[in-house]
Write a structure and sequence with these properties.
The chain contains 10 helices and 10 strands. It is of the alpha/beta class.
Amino acid sequence: MNSAIEQVGTPNAAADVDVIVSIRDLNVFYGKFHAVGNVSFDVPKNQITALIGPSGCGKSTVLRCINRMNDLIPEARVEGRIEYHETDINSSNVDPVEVRRHVGMVFQKPNPFPKSIYENISWGAQINGHKGNYDELVERCLRQAALWDEVKDKLQESGLALSGGQQQRLCIARTLAINPDVILMDEPCSALDPISTLRIEDLMRELERQYTIVIVTHNMQQAARVSDQTVFFSLGENRMGVLVEASQTRQLFTNPNDQRTEDYITGRFG
């Protein structure tokens, strides 16, 4: 699952960009409700892809498909093809736990374990079979998450004692400890103050040098600031989420191809 992917004829990225995740004809159902219909786009390697659109249009549903989190919802059904390094992650011979080792996730609300800062990182790594030096791992991940200088003298204190922004960076550090190459972020800044939000945004820009990031955000300014590619979703018939447009962020915000995109980013609807 580690081979590079050459992009040929895909709908929304330049030909010289490697694709790490390719989504084709994705449909998601919750019981009888058709939540997402016929979604296709690519996620370029070592870039930030932002998913934007009005509430209820399927952004988070699509995000959860990329590491099979929807498997945990009994009534959910996923159809279509999602390739990670050219492997269809929904194939019967693919272990969803293994998928989540390669594709980590940071949730909307910071959710550190009720353990020490040190254990928040080392515990997940241990479960995933880390064999190296845990002190080095903890320091490396906290440095990558721009948190080391703030917590290096209180590693044995509870992660729950940190501020909201620090907790979210701790959760990012915890995700990095399992050594993924894709990080999914579901509105990671929605519960944070503006200063903490800017720190997370700066952190994302640093992390994209080594990781591929897909972020769901309601904040269009945030998408414009941090992402390389933006995918715009809207509501179709019967409130089904549909993909309207996927392109480089600068192009989508300055010269969108679809009138619905322009109406949304200019505030005419949504």
